[in-house]
Structures are given as structure tokens and as C-alpha cells.
User: Fold Cation transport regulator ChaB from Desmospora profundinema.
Amino acid sequence: MGVSRLAMDVEEIPLHDLVTEHLSERAKEIYSSSFHMVWIHTQGERVERQKIAHQVAWDRLKQEYTQPVRSPIQVDPGSFELKKK
Assistant:
């Protein structure tokens, strides 16, 4: 099986309805490219490959669209005292 056949197999896999209905165009592109890259580089049964590819693609979306939670900055109240001349 050559690379071109692998690429055809990947293109034949439709994105899940939840992906196509609830993601922006940019998110669909990220998901799709991640999914297809994993699909090409994994072996095994179709169902297992889909599960792995979906998980990796979804994790990639989470990385792209979630920001780390920042903790509030702790300020020393003494740093704002006026100094006497």
C-alpha cells in the first residue's frame, strides 16, 4: 500500500457530526489535519485508529483554544506607601 493510497483512505474518513456542527472553520481545520496526520502514522484496526486519531485531534484543539489559568497577582500593600521626604 503506497502513500497515495493511505492519503486516499484518510480523505474518505468523514469528520464526526459533532465536529462539523459545533466547531468553527479554523477549529475544523486543526481537528482535521491532526486527525489525518495521526491516521496516517498509526496502524491497526479502523475503529482503534479512529479512536486514537480523535483523541489526539481533540487534545490538539484543547491546546489551541484553552489558555492556562492565571492565578491572581499577589501585591505587597507596603509597596504602595508614600515615602516621606
